[in-house]
Amino acid sequence: MSEEIEETKTSEEATGEEQREMEDKVISPEKAEEAKLKKRYPNLGAKPGGSDLLRKRLQKGQKYFDSGDYNMAKAKVKNKQLPAATAEKTEITGDHIPTPQDLPQRKPSLVASKLAV
Amino acid sequence: MIPGRGGDPDDTRWCFAQVKGVVEVNVTEADIISTVEFNSTGELLATGDKGGRVVVFQREQESKNQPHRRGEYNVYSTFQSHEPEFDYLKSLEIEEKINKIRWLPQHNAAYFLLSTNDKTVKLWKISERDRRPEGYNLKDEEGRIRDPATITTLRVPVLRPMDLMVEATARRIFSNAHTYHINSISVNSDYETFMSTDDLRINLWNLEITNKSFNIVDIKPANMEELTEVITAAEFHPNQCNTFVYSSSKGSIRLCDMRAAALCDNHSKFFEEPEDPSNRSFFSEIISSISDVKFSHSGRYLMTRDYLTVKVWDLNMESKPLETYQVHDYLRSKLCSLYENDCIFDKFECVWNGSDSVIMTGSYNNFFRMFDRNTKRDVTLEASRENSKPRAILKPRKVCVGGKRRKDEISVDSLDFSKKILHTAWHPSENIIAVAATNNLYIFQDKVN
């Protein structure tokens, strides 16, 4: 009799552990994914939604163009009489200031839609 | 309305009808379809693309000789709606991509639609011309000016028939009212006003007046550092002209009544499903962000789409949705990579069928899903050139989640996440659907025996 009881106890413990293991896996594939992400990017802030993400979204399309820098560079080029395109590029002040040539084509699309064939 | 597994004769079987667009290895970015919309009768189907162009298809009259062939949609008009712009003052590039098209109800021979990019809404008039005046006195038939000295008699010009010409003209341009990017437009049932919605504000316009707009919702915080929530979509109630809803990036929907106040910052109803705090993860808020909100045709229900589910809400019950449908729950264990490749931010739309009994939304791998609210059955179909023989019946598709993969199933890891169906439309009264698969437009209809 006592043997039987002991056996039952052990099997209960075993299922208890199994259950907890299962729960850990089942609790959340999301949490498992979150752990994966945090491992890859340890500097990721705790709050994912919140201002950083949203502000990035609101700033879509922002391109910085300083007409002063651009025109100064153009003026210098005229004096030196170098071929326009390449010289302008080398005269750009700062690393990331685009010229109108660098910005994507803003001409209207004159090509008809391929759905309208 | 859903293809049955048991071959129940009452079930709808969907067939391929048409596909528009070309097959290209490298898709031209401008060709990516960004919005699809039937007009209120279903006679016209409009698409907008990333290149700022609108193409309108018209349904052919059904011929009595071929009753099994439903009317086909053919090109009716195409025009450049928006062009790329650069706001020099703010150093902001303004994309020409058409975010939304909404048709106005028809009240004369011409058709009207509103189309919008990130900053400007335009009212377009599409009209037919099938006659032209002939017999001018001062011009000859080729248009060359005649020397008045040679004219000895006068005649009255007459209208003569000509080949049909469809013209699109911009009748109103509603601009300079949005600091942030417009995500929705909605025509009011009063047929006099419409609203345009950006991330933080909603503006009300009169269709006739372009130099004035009223702000009706403003959720911009005094300090932008405190920003926690943005508006993701908004829509007017289909028959109550004082009521509209807007959804947020936090998964809530607010219903507002314009009779209550001029500025509707205080909602009349607030719909949100309570979250289980123990389930909260880094991704919870992102996947709860609502990408689309649509009233049912009856006006009794609301449908919302978030990253993994579609929910139907009863307007009279704010505490939780009436129904929740899993679109692609198997993606829950892929959220990390979906966050890294930005797919977790994809904005899927959702639509009702004409009788509000079936709802449809898109997924990845060019799959789209339909849920029958009555039978609780659902189906996954695919928009693919492989099933594009005329009237070919679409076979239901199945994604297998780990374990043994059956022959026809596709495993989660084989899904193509670049093939996403974000935009779909359902004909207002018939079982005809339009599905935008990147740069191709598919039209499917139910099988007619």
Summary?
The complex is a heterodimer of chains A (117) and B (449). Chain A has five helices and no strands. Chain A has 117 residues and is mostly helical.
- Sheet with most strands: strand arrangement of chain B: 1-32-31-30
* Strand content range of chain B: 35-45%
Return residue spans of chain A where pLDDT drops below 50 for at least 5 consecutive residues. 1-9, 20-25, 81-93
How large is the count of helical segments of chain B? 2
- The assigned CATH architecture of chain B is 7 Propeller
| Overall form of chain B | globular
Based on CA inertia axes, which overall geometry of chain A fits? flat
Alpha carbon gyration radius of chain B = 24 Å
Number of strands of chain B: 32
Assigned CATH superfamily of chain B? YVTN repeat-like/Quinoprotein amine dehydrogenase
Tell me roughly what share of residues is in helical segments of chain B: under 10%
How would a textbook summarize the main sheet of chain B?
A: 4 strands, antiparallel
Count structural domains of chain B: 1
- SSE order of chain A, one letter for each helix or strand: HHHHH
Name of the top-level CATH class of chain B: Mainly Beta
Low-confidence stretches of chain B: 3-10
Protein name (chain B): Serine/threonine-protein phosphatase 2A 55 kDa regulatory subunit B
GO cellular component, one term (chain B): protein phosphatase type 2A complex
Keywords (chain B): Repeat, WD repeat
Subunit structure (chain B): PP2A consists of a common heterodimeric core enzyme, composed of a 36 kDa catalytic subunit (subunit C) and a 65 kDa constant regulatory subunit (PR65 or subunit A), that associates with a variety of regulatory subunits.
